[in-house]
Amino acid sequence: MTSVAMAFGDGMTVARRNLIKIKRVPDLLVFTTLSPIMFVLLFAYVFGSSISIPGVPYREFLIAGIFVQTAVFGATWTGLGLAEDMQKGIIDRFRSLPMARSAVLVGRTTSDVVINIISLVVMSVTGVIVGWRVHSSILEALAGFALLLLFAYALSWMMAVVGLWIRSPEVFNNASFMVIFPLTFVANTFVPSQNLPSVLKVIAEWNPVSAVTQASRELFGNTHPALGVPEAWPLRHSVLASLIWTAIILAIFVPLAILRYRKAVSR
C-alpha cells in the first residue's frame, strides 16, 4: 500500500508540473479549445441548414458529437507531451529522481483529465449559445460528462503508446491526426450512421466513438423516437457498449504504455 501511495503522490506531482506548464504557456490551451468551437460554428451555421435530423434540431444532435471529438483530440495531449519530454531529455532527468516509474504516465494522463474538463466546460457554454439544451435530469447529464471524461482518459493511454513509440512531436501530430480524423468522422458524430454507405455504416456502428456519442445524446436527452431504434448492438446499448470499449482500451493500452515506457527509459 505504501508503494501505491508513493506512486500516486509522485503521479500527482508530475500532473501538477504539466498543468503549471499550461499556465505558463496559455496559448496551448486557448488553441485547443478554439478548434472544437470552430467545428461547432462551422457545422451549426454552414452545414446545419442542409442537414435534417428527424425530431431533433441539428444543433442539439451535433453537440454530443463535438463533445466526443473534443475528448478524442484532448487525448493527444498525453502523447504529444511524452514525445516532447523524450525529445528534450526530461524523462532522463526523472530517472535520476527517487520517484515511481509509473508517475510519469499517471501524471500525464491525469493532467489531461483536467484539460478535458476545461474544454468540455467551454464547449458546453458554446453549445448553449448556439441552441443546445439538456432535456434530461441533472444526474443523467453529469453521467454523460463523466462518460466522456472516462473515454478520453482511456484514449490518453492509447496516445501515450503512440507518443512513446514515435518520440518526435512533429511526427506525432501527423500520425495522431491520421488516426483521429477517420475515427471521429466515420461515426455518428455529425450525421446518423444509417445515412452512410453500407460498408462505412457497419464501421461507424461498431466504432467506439459512435457508441460514446449515442450514449451522450441519450444521457443529455438529445434523441427522439422519430430517429428510430438503432439496429447495431453497440448503439442500442450505447452506455454499456461505451463502458465495455473503455475497459478494453484501458486493458490493452495501459500495459502497453508501461512496457513501452520501460523500454524507452532503459536505453
Describe it.
There is one protein chain. The protein has 267 residues and is mainly alpha-helical. It has one domain (2-265). Helices cover 78% and strands 0% of the residues. The chain has helices at residues 2-24, 27-47, 58-74, 76-88, 90-95, 103-130, 138-166, 169-185, 198-205, 208-220, 233-236, 238-265. Helix 2 (27-47) runs parallel beside helix 6 and helix 3 packs parallel to helix 7 (138-166). The two termini are 30 Å apart. The mean pLDDT is 84.
Content-based structural category: mainly alpha
Head-to-tail CA distance between termini: 30 Å
Low-pLDDT stretches: none
Major sheet size, sense and barrel closure: none
Content of β-strand? under 5%
Q: Report the strand count.
A: 0
The overall number of domains is 1
Radius of gyration: 19 Å
Mean pLDDT, all residues: 84
Element order: H for helix, E for strand:
HHHHHHHHHHHH
Helix content: over 70%
Outline, from the CA principal axes? Answer: elongated
List the total number of helices: 12
